[in-house]
Here is the input.
Amino acid sequence: MARQPIASNPAGFSRSAEVLAWATYDWANSAYSTLSITILVNYLQRVVFPPERYGNTGAVVWAWGIAGSMLLAAILSPVVGAMADANANKRVWLAATGFGGAVAAMALGLVPPDWPWVVVGFFFLTSLLFELSLGFYNGFLPEIADEETMNRMSAWGYALGYIGGALALVLAILIMQFGDAIGVSDKTLQLRIGLVIMGGWWGLFTLPTIWVLRDRQPAPEHRQAFFAAGRQAVRAVGSTLKNVRHYRMLVVFLLGFLFYNDGIQTVISQASTFAIKDLQFDTGELIGLILMIQFLAMPGALLVGRLGDRMGQKATLMGCLAIWVGLVVTAYFIHSKAAFWALGAVLAMVMGGTQSVSRAMMGAMTPERHTAEFFGFFNLTGKATSFMGTFVFGLVILFTGSSRQAIVSLVVFFLIGWAFAARVDVAEGRRQALEGHWDE
Here is the structure.
């Protein structure tokens, strides 16, 4: 039994235009993903909270700001996802969170650095809106892709994201390299301009996504008011929790994702802190490292997507997780910048691919009529322990001053995630999604 044929775009755009517009949001929001772990982390830890005055406060604010925004996103994602399903308006929510996050990101560069807690507020808001927007964005995937193309579409989204993020970073690098020639010699001002670029890129390239994408589910005759939709959404979340038992394979997968994604997200968000504090990377070296990772991650994501088509999603995921375990164990013993660069190259090849194949597996086992709601739970499981990883990371730094000790604990998360993922039967998960059993 196959999924229903993909419905045409209500606005008349071709499927190829819709696929490109969908993937373009990865291109857009990756400016935040990339510049936050290069420009923003340096700005917070060296300008807003300079270590000679604030000690380790900058590193703790960075870790706990991400942790807090992930925790709130975990709470809100299933609720706002259910609200989007109730009114069939994922597109509206994607516009609100995408453009809102872009404006907050630009504000990070416009607010004076001697207003530290205002900067922290915009940092928290930007991170929160970024995380929420991904639930609506991912919710479009099962509506515009079938089982045959879902792996490749998911991989192309990540691949375009790495290129988009890399090009946005190149713009920031040009400001830093040639700032003197254009009258921007102050290093702090260069970083602030980089933050404005981060938000501007995100907002600009969100435009085609919002222009082209349309919800497939028919809108209700009478749209619910915001608070009424919110109350219904809370009831819908309760209904989802009750009905999720009918999708056992999806539940097993999400439990595994909850653990191994914690490891991935903590590595991605905190690797810059490790490089800055333990290996003494300067801003230029850190930017170069992240740029290398961005460009290598594109072929990595495409390669893993192709492997997912040939070897199957589950086998590909198992291989990626094995590599992650090796990376985390090796990182603990690294004491040189050259070794860290080599580790970054390997990480790049599996970073996007692991997330891409996970998103494709989620899409294959998701009932079509509840895509935003279930992808809200996808975000929930992705954030529910990720905030704990970054919280503990910050806690270790607070008490030890070193990020190295926090690396070892991540092995446990990858191994637990692998144990759950190994029990997933994707074919059975598809069958359960197609049956679409739902108790009102």
Q: What stands out?
A: The mean pLDDT is 81.
